[in-house]
């Protein structure tokens, strides 16, 4: 039986924007905060309302700017260990039927290739920047817009929000 369930967001409304650092783009960007009404759905039928939530999105890639995008070194080492164990089992356990020879050799070669892949990923793992996300955000140049990015209205010198569309600049 095919089962579909998930979270759907209704009523996207932009409430704020700010200068931010996006981990997906790996660059300085502007992030937008949207207020949505989230609902849990099963077979595309809303079942459980989760309430109003606020979500940040990068204006370039439309993803969460602070979501982790790279695989951690620990997961790569775990994959190497699991596939190394599997490769050792395929080489050490004898096979008695000659009918199974193709499948066993396929598993031996395939698991050996996966071990080589994970070992290569570990060896050529690029270290990220030594700066944390909060340090990167603090190092950003201050973005001071003169006009609202959404409606184009000029900002008041003292106000941090747009008088026309009520979008707040953080």
SSE layout and pairing:
Blueprint: E1 5-22, E2 27-42, E3 45-58, H1 73-92, H2 101-123, H3 133-138, E4 168-169
Parallel strand pairs: 1-4
Antiparallel strand pairs: 1-2, 2-3
Helix pairs in contact: 1-2
Structure commentary:
With 170 residues, the protein is an alpha+beta fold. It folds into two domains: 10-69 and 140-169, no CATH class; 73-123. It has three helices and four strands, in the order βββαααβ. The chain has helices spanning 73-92, 101-123, 133-138; strands at residues 5-22, 27-42, 45-58, 168-169. A four-stranded mixed β-sheet has the order 3-2-1-4. Strand 2 and strand 3 form a beta hairpin. Helix 1 runs antiparallel to helix 2. It starts with a strand and ends with a strand. The model has no long low-confidence stretch (mean pLDDT 85).
Q: What spatial form do the alpha-carbon principal axes imply? A: elongated
H/E series: EEEHHHE
Residues in helix, %: 25-40%
Number of helices: 3
- Class per helix and strand makeup: alpha+beta
DSSP summary, beta strand count: 4
Strand order of the largest sheet: 3-2-1-4
**Strand composition percent:** 25-35%
The overall pLDDT, averaged over residues, is 85
Radius of gyration: 25 Å
Amino-to-carboxy terminus distance? 47 Å
Strand count, sense and barrel status of the largest sheet are: 4 strands, mixed
- Residue ranges: pLDDT <50 for 5 or more in a row? none
Number of discrete domains = 2
């Amino acid at each position: 039986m095919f089962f579909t369930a998930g979270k759907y967001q209704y009523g996207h409304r932009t409430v704020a924007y700010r200068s931010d650092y996006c981990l997906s783009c790996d660059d300085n960007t502007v992030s937008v905060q949207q207020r949505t009404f989230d609902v849990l759905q099963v077979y595309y039928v809303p079942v459980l309302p989760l309430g109003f939530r606020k979500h940040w999105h990068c204006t370039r890639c439309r993803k969460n700017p602070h979501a982790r995008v790279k695989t951690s070194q620990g997961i790569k080492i775990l994959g190497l260990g699991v596939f190394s164990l599997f490769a050792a089992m395929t080489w050490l356990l004898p096979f008695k039927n000659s009918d199974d020879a193709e499948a066993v050799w396929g598993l031996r070669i395939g698991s050996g290739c996966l071990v080589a892949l994970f070992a290569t990923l570990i060896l050529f793992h690029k270290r990220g920047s030594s700066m944390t996300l909060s340090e990167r955000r603090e190092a950003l140049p201050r973005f001071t817009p003169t006009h609202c990015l959404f409606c184009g209205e000029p900002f008041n010198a003292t106000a941090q929000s747009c008088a026309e569309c009520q979008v707040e600049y953080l």
